[in-house]
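Notebook, p. 212. Picked up where the previous page left off. The plan for this session was modest: take the two constructs that came back from the sequencing core last week, fold each one, and keep the raw output in the notebook itself so nobody has to go hunting through shared drives later. Recording the first one now, exactly as returned: residue sequence, then the structure token string.
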Amino acid sequence: MMLKTNDIFFEFISKTWIKYKYIDDALSPLLQKGLVEVGNLLLLSEFNDSRVIPAESLFDDIDKEVFINNFHSDDYLNSFQIEEHWINMILFCKNLKNYLPENRSYFVYMILSQTEYGVNFKMYKDRGIEYLSENIDKYQQGIIQFKF
């Protein structure tokens, strides 16, 4: 199991930023196009034809589970290394922060999990760390907490 903290990961990012800078450029346009709601999930509208939800309203529903696909990261990275998926997650959060309402704080748990369909990201708003600890076997690749 890999459990990383903000400090450890941002240090890792700072050492590899130049190598992965282009991912940041790729994610910004995807976020600007908004997200779509599919059942209780939110997906990037780039990959779905459903109704668009502005990124600003992403966390309006406290119980909303947000699922972000892997951004076709094979197109951006040409590999599926776990460390690179973590970088995608960090850069997604860095971009997402620009689209959230100001003067509001969010505690967000980012989860990277391996499924039969590939590597997926999930994002929970204000989800108690106790819940995640109790279900850690579901999240073998790790958890990272952000405060927006």
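Okay, moving on. Second construct, recorded in the same format:
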Amino acid sequence: MAEQATEPTGSGNKWLGLIVGVVLVLLGSTVFKDLQVPIPGLDLNLGKSAAMAGITILLFPLIRMFYTDPLKNAINERNSQLEETFTEAEELRQRMDEMRGEYEQRLSAAEAAAREQIQAQIREAQALRDQLRAEAVQQAEQFKAKAIADIEQEKQRILNDLRVHVVNLTLQATEKLVGESVDNERSRKLIDEFIEQVEVAG
């Protein structure tokens, strides 16, 4: 509002100065052209003085119009450009700070995700190791139990074979001593019971 009120006043002063300058030039070059002012020791021509004053007054608006105002406008425009540049630079700096913050957040999230994935893989590997170890122990126990059972079974088979062989040898020896056949069910049962008693006592 102040600038709008000032502008007409400045424009009016400019036109007033131009009118006064033109009037002084015209008066000095026509009406007061040969008018001399009687001042002792000073040769003063009022017409020339008025014309010079008018020309000087005319020069101020012209200088302002063709030099001062364009220079001021150029300075104002340059200041506006500098302000825009500073504003853009500040906005760019803020945007860079935001981008850096976003990048750091994404980097932190990626690092956390990678750490979590590594920990999950470690836990999975440990669980698999424990499972394999438990399965190995279980298989070893099964193999051990089977081996013991096989050994016991083989032992019983050998003992049975040995018992039959001992019974046969005993019967053969008895037959030779007695001179008759003693290979019957009762004799075998007696010898077998004797061998069992010997095994229990042993």
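Notes on construct two before I forget. Residues 2-108 form one domain.
Flagging for discussion at group meeting.
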